[in-house]
Design a protein that fits this description.
The complex is a heterodimer of chains A (272) and B (368). Chain A is an all-alpha fold and 272 residues long. Chain A contains 13 helices and no strands. In chain A, helix 11 packs antiparallel against helix 12 and helix 11 packs parallel to helix 13. The mean pLDDT of chain B is 93. Chain A: InterPro entries: Multihaem_cyt_sf, Multiheme_Cytochr_ET, Tetrahaem_cytochrome.
Chain lengths: 272, 368
């Protein structure tokens, strides 16, 4: 049976205040700071819009490196985004591409210029984008050294020998990287390990532009030694976590045994 | 044992300990058909105490500064001896507190223990539920991770849907236009100072109401009186002559429930702590990089989905406000004296329908 309700106004006001917390939790919108380059080019068709789609799949996008980081300009001002006075650089000429990328990757630029590829710059030799592409740039890995890519310019034979010498090291780096990422996503402080792997990976990647098989093999052996150290550190983390689980199992079992004991004890009192 | 007896006698001579024990423990009689669901209140008291203890321990090393907060939490989790255990107990405990509180409220609803003369018990309990959500929300920001930063951005952004005052309210909540150091300062003060104090006060008020009205009789079982016969003319304590004593009988039930709770709680802490964390929870906050999928905590998923369903956020907020007001004022709306839910099919349908709707919206919100 429903009765006529008389609510004091203060009661209603109190209830309304109380509702506050439960209500403002969960808007469907987030504020996404997107550059004007992406806002504009993302909606353009064909040649002008294609770079945005490609960029979204890249390692640059993954790390928040947007258009203006390479091409310059003002990413917050649509009217002057491509104004030269705001630092807009546009697309580089072919011979300028290594220097263009090398602003952020100076070590790689040095390795490239010292390599057979770099020495052929301006004489028909490849630039960075020949192998790495320009917008859908992926994290550098051995998969870049493949018959399809290399045989566009020369025979794959020598490149195959170098790639095979680096294969094991690459496998170890990928495996350690995956383990570090897994632990990082679980709250383990992997900063030191991540930095060490970053340094090792960079050293390893400097071999990617090297064409001396002996040097590649020698350097790879040293790098493998450093990776073994990282592997040992990760094993210590694994062992610690395994020990915690054993303790956890004992504690949970203890709580369940206590629950059973209390329940049985209660029954003895209920029967009295 | 002799020493304890001597100490007990010593205390009794001075403060009348035996009389207190007789009155509050062995002589405190509860309904004969009392069930396990009544012990959830005790479980909640234990959880709240544990949250206070772990929170105080975290305070020793946590730094409420946008530059240092994430690093201090990382230090607690990785360097500090048993810091990981304290932090996980606090984080998992907050989720468990909401879960157990929901179960406590559902059992109260189902057994209709909110009815007269227990309106104040229900209201204080409802306020506690809202404040527990508030303390969880404010605590969520403190690690200053990508997850906490963006979840808070999304949550505070909802207030913008309120006409006229919305944008000012958002700025007031954040302490600035965007979530930033000022927001962290505000949320920290609310989380460790204001809300816990109010919660403690309300727990006191809730227990006071419970002591003054007496424990409600479950509306089930043979020969059970299922109607309320409280008359608003005079105060009456609901006693249970011939009932079971709180100590040792029901105290053992409380201990059983608390032990079961600890088994579940510790199983999550030791074996599945990442059930409650996404990888973004371990990445420092970055105002310029929005994570791909921002979802609120599981207990806000239904609210989140409701806002998405309606064409305008204001409409979504209004619907939620109406639902919450209805729930808060239920004891004043549902005045039927019948307490057995099986004798009230409409109530039963609303209860299960409402619960399934909440679960459905939460699941939808999770996968949307």
């Amino acid at each position: 049976m429903m009765m006529r309700i008389k609510f004091p106004r203060t009661l209603l006001a109190t209830a309304a205040v109380l509702l506050g917390v439960g209500l403002f939790c969960g808007s469907a919108r987030a504020e996404q700071p997107e550059t004007v380059c992406i806002q504009c080019h993302g909606s353009l068709p064909d040649r002008l819009g294609a770079p945005v789609k490609l960029w979204r799949t890249s390692v640059h996008a993954e790390n928040g490196i947007s258009c203006n980081a390479c091409h310059g300009g003002d990413p917050k001002d649509a009217a002057d985004a491509m104004n030269r006075s705001r630092g807009f650089l546009g697309a580089p000429k072919e011979a300028d591409i290594p220097a263009f990328c090398g602003r952020c990757h100076p070590g790689v630029l040095k390795d490239y210029l010292a390599s057979a590829h770099g020495r052929a710059l301006g004489k028909g030799g490849p630039t960075c984008v020949t192998c790495h592409t320009n917008h859908a740039v992926q994290r550098a890995s051995l998969t870049i050294i493949n018959e399809k890519t290399c045989s566009r310019c020369h025979s794959f034979e020598r490149a195959r020998v170098i790639r095979d010498a680096m294969q094991q090291t690459e496998g170890s780096i990928v495996s350690i990287d995956r383990r570090i990422k897994t632990y990082q996503s679980q709250g383990v402080d992997t900063e030191r390990l991540g930095k060490s792997l970053f340094a090792v990976r960079n050293r390893f990647h400097s071999l990617f532009h090297e064409v001396s098989v002996t040097k590649v093999q020698g350097e790879s052996a040293q790098i493998n030694g450093e990776l073994a150290k990282l592997d040992r550190d990760l094993k210590v983390i694994e062992e610690t976590r395994a020990k915690r689980k054993v303790v956890g199992g004992i504690v949970v079992a203890g709580a369940l045994i206590l629950a059973i004991l209390f329940h049985l004890l209660k029954k003895t009192y209920d029967e009295k | 044992m002799a020493l304890i007896k001597r100490l007990y006698n010593w205390l009794d001579l001075r403060i009348g300990a035996k009389e207190i024990v007789e009155q509050e423990l062995t002589g405190y009689l509860l309904p004969k058909n009392i069930n396990e669901w009544y012990s959830l209140g005790s479980v909640l008291l234990v959880i709240f105490t544990l949250q206070v203890v772990t929170g105080l321990l975290l305070l020793v090393y946590y730094v409420p500064d946008a530059e240092k907060a994430f690093k201090s939490v990382t230090y607690i989790m990785n360097e500090l001896p048993y810091g990981w255990l304290i932090r996980l107990c606090h984080a998992v405990g907050s989720n468990m507190m909401v879960a157990v509180l929901i179960m406590h409220m559902l059992s109260t609803l189902f057994m209709k223990s909110y009815k007269s003369p227990r309106e104040l018990n229900w209201l204080t309990g409802f306020m506690l539920f809202t404040l527990v959500q508030g303390i969880s929300l404010t605590g969520y920001l403190l690690p200053w991770s990508q997850l906490s930063f963006w979840a808070t951005t999304v949550a505070t952004n909802s207030a913008a849907a309120i006409p006229v005052v919305g944008p000012y309210l958002v700025e007031f909540l954040r302490g600035s236009k965007l979530v930033g150091p000022a927001t962290l300062g505000r949320f920290f003060a609310l989380h460790v100072g204001v809300i816990p104090a109010v919660i403690a006060g309300l727990i006191g008020a809730h227990l006071f109401c419970l002591k003054r009205t007496g424990i409600s009789t479950p509306p089930f079982g043979a020969n059970t009186e299922t109607g309320t016969h409280w008359s608003p003319e005079h105060y009456r304590y609901e006693s249970h002559p011939g009932g079971i004593p709180f100590f040792p009988n029901y105290a053992l039930q409380d201990l059983t429930s608390i032990s079961v709770y600890f088994a579940v709680f510790l199983a999550v802490v030791f074996f599945a702590p990442n059930l409650l964390f996404t990888p973004d929870a371990f990445v420092p906050a970055n105002a310029f990089q929005t994570p791909a999928h921002i979802k609120p905590e599981w207990y806000f998923l239904a609210n989140y989905q409701t806002l998405k369903i309606f064409p305008s956020e204001l409409l979504g907020l209004s619907v939620q406000a109406a639902a919450m007001t209805f729930l808060a004022l239920l004891p004043f709306i549902d005045r039927s004296p019948e307490r057995n839910p099986f004798k009230r099919p409409l109530f039963l349908a609303c209860f299960f329908g409402g619960f399934l709707l909440w679960v459905g919206l939460s699941v939808w919100g999770h996968y949307s």
